[in-house]
User: What shape does this take?
Amino acid sequence: MKKLILLFSGLVLVLSSCGREKKNDVNAPNEEVVKTDNFSIVMSAIYEKDDELVLVFKKNGYWDYDNPTKFLVKGQPNSQTINLQFPMGKRYDNVQIDVSTNKEQKVLTLTNISILNNGKVEVDGRNMAFLKFFNFGTAFTWDEKNLRYNLLFDQQYPPRIMGSESLEAVLIKK
Assistant: This one.
């Protein structure tokens, strides 16, 4: 009889402990992961002199010239990757980039302008494919021999590239 009581007690203990674990699993809250937009422009360029780049964003059909985002670039003779972060969590319709504010910067070599969101490529601008997504203003002339841009600071605006309708279509659809 004692063996039967011990066996019954052991069985009750095993069954009750198994049920508790399942109960805890059922009550675990479901957490949804909400991803925030984290856009950036990645440029491969040669800046021979120290410079400053200025980003101006278009939102809801209007360019926000009152709140530019500025980035410093250290001059060097080799190509460098420049990462220009959009304000965290913000979505924009378009972007314009003043590629130079240093009037001593006479030339600029650009091989890539890509746009990423959370590290995923949204616009692949490698191998000069960025020409489809950006319009170059009158402050640029192409140097065919050296495969680079000559920068002209005697124009109405500094050397500036603006996102094209193709870029706007990509940014808005997301």
In short: Helices lie at 2-26, 165-173. The chain has a mean pLDDT of 87.
